[in-house]
Amino acid sequence: MTYCNAIARRILCLGLLAALLVPAAEAADKSAVKNVSYDVSGLDGELQSNVEIYLSQLPPVKSDRVGRYEDDITEAVRNGLQALGYYQPQIAFGKLDGATLHLEVTPGEPVRFRHIKVTLSGDADHDQLFKTLLEQLPIKEGDVLRHDRYESTKSRLQTLALQRGYFDAHFEANQVKVYPEAHAGDVDIAFASGPRYRFGALKIDSDEDVGELLNPLITIKEGEPYQASQVTDVSRSVASTKYFKNVDVIPLIDQADSEHRIPIILRLRAKADNQVELGLGASSDEGPRASVSWTKPFLNKYGHSFTTDLTVSAPRQEATFEYRIPRGDPINQFYSFQGGYQYLDQEDTESQQLTFALHRWDKKTNDWSRDLFLRTLFESYKQADQEDDVFLVIPGVSFNRTRTRGGVDLTWGDSEQITIETSDEALGSDTHFVRVWGRTKWLRSIGQNGRIIARAEQGAVFVDTIDDLPPSLRFFTGGDQTVRGFGYRTIAPRNADGELVGGKYTTALSLEYDHRIAEKWRLAGFVDTGTATNRYTGFDDWKVGTGFGVRWLTPIGPISIDLAFGVSEEHVPWRIHFTMGPEL
Prior knowledge:
Elements: H1 2-32, E1 37-41, H2 45-56, H3 70-82, E2 90-97, E3 100-106, E4 112-121, H4 128-135, H5 147-164, E5 170-179, E6 184-192, E7 198-206, H6 228-240, E8 244-251, E9 261-270, E10 275-283, E11 287-296, E12 305-313, E13 316-326, E14 333-346, E15 349-365, E16 368-383, E17 386-405, E18 412-423, E19 433-446, E20 450-462, E21 505-518, E22 521-533, E23 543-554, E24 557-565, E25 574-580
Parallel strand pairs: 1-3, 4-6, 7-9
Antiparallel strand pairs: 2-3, 5-6, 8-9, 10-11, 11-12, 12-13, 13-14, 14-15, 15-16, 16-17, 17-18, 18-19, 19-20, 20-21, 21-22, 22-23, 23-24, 24-25
C-alpha cells in the first residue's frame, strides 16, 4: 500500500510539472511569432502610399494567424484604393516569407466623375467670391474620382461661408454616387447659404480709457457685410500698437438681431504700467554689450508712451529717451521727442555727444516709412590730433523700406535706407554742410538651398573741410557690416602720424553666397570692398576682404561667425566677425 502511494505521488508531481511546462512552452512559442509586415507590389505613387497607410492602421496580426485576417487585409487594400477612385482591384495573397506577407494588387480601371452638380441658394448665390469658387472647384467631369477632392469641395464652401458671414449655411444635399461597373461617379451638392450677416455695434471693453485713440484702426463699420478678415485685421492692428498684452475681437453671433447684425466686443487688457527689459549681446565691432530698457507704454488715453534705454559696451556708453505722441494712426503716424548722451572711445576717436530731436514719423507711405526731423547736436571730441567742440542744428529726412518673405529663415527680401540732412550758420550752427547717406541690401534664393545676399552703401558730405565736422558726421568704414577682414571704422583717411581722420565720402559693396547644409545651418562665402576718402582718385585706397563663415538659424535670426582676410593688404590681416540678429 505504501509502495502504491509513493507511485501515485510521483505521477501526481509529474502531472503538475507538465501542466506548468506546457503553458511556458506555448508562451515561448508565441513570443517567437512576429507581427506581420506587408509587401505590396503592382502599385506606385499615391496608390502605393495610400494602401500602405490603410494597412498600417490594422491591428497587429501574428504571422501564424494571417488566414483569420484575410478579409480585414483585403478590405484595407480596397478602402485605400477606393479613396483614390479605384473600385475594382484584384488582390492576390502571396506566400508568407517569415513575417512578411506579399500582396500582388492590380488596381484596375478607375472610376471617373461623370456628372457634377453643385448649386447655391441664399445670399451666396449673388456673392462674386462664391461664383469664383465654383469656377475653381478641385473636381472636374472626366477626372478620376478622388474622395479627398470631393471632401475638399465641401470644405471650401463651408470655409468661405464662415469667412463671409453666412452663419446659417448648410448642405441640403451632399452625396457622391458611384457606379463601379460603369466606372462612373455622380456628384450632387446643394449648398444653402442663408442670409449674410452684418456687423453690428462695436463695444470696447478695456481696463484703460482709450478715448478715440483706436478709431483709425477700427475698420469694422456697423451695417457692413461681415468678413472674418476684417476681424483679424482689427485684432492685428490693435495688438501692433504695443499698448495691450491681450487683444480679443469677439463676434457675438448668437446675439445677432432680427436683421442679422452681430454685436462685436473689442476686449483689451493693457500692459503693465512699467516694463523693464535686460539685454546681453556681442559683436566683433564692439565686443560684449549690455542694455536695460524701461518703458511706460500707456501714459494716458491719447496713447502717449515713454521709453529710456541704457547701453554699455567697452567703446561706447549711451543713455537715451523717447517720448512718443500719436497724431492719428498710432502705429504709422506719430511725433517723437528724443534725446540722449553718448560717450565713444574707439580707435582714434574720443567723443561726447548730447542730442535732442523732434521727429514726425509717417510709416508705410507707399511701402516706405518717412521720418522728418529736426535735431540739435553738441559734440565735444578729440579726433586724431584735432580737439574741438561743435554745436549744430540739423534738419533732415530719412526714408526706409524693408520687405521680406520666408519668416525667420528668409527666402526673399530687400531693405533700403536713405538719409539727407543739412545745417547752416543761419540756424545757429557752427558750420554749414549737406550730408547724404544710403544703403540697400538684397536677398534672393537660388535653387532649393542657395541664397545670394548683395549690399551697397554710399555716403557723401559736402563741407568746406573735413575738420569742420565732428566725428559722428564723418565717414569711416570697415567691420561686420561693411568690409570684413578689417577692424570697425578703421578704413578712412589718416594724418601724417597715421591716425584716423575720417572722410567726406564712403562706398562699401558686398556679395555673399550661402548654402543650407542642414535644417538650421548654412555655410557662406563672401567678398567685400570699400573705402572712405576725401577724394576718389582711383582704387589705391579701396580695401578688399574675403572669407567664409557659418550661419546658425535661431528664433531671433541667424547667428553668424565669419573668418575674413584683408586680401588687398601686403601683409594680409585676418579677423573673426561675430553678429546676431535679422539679416534685413
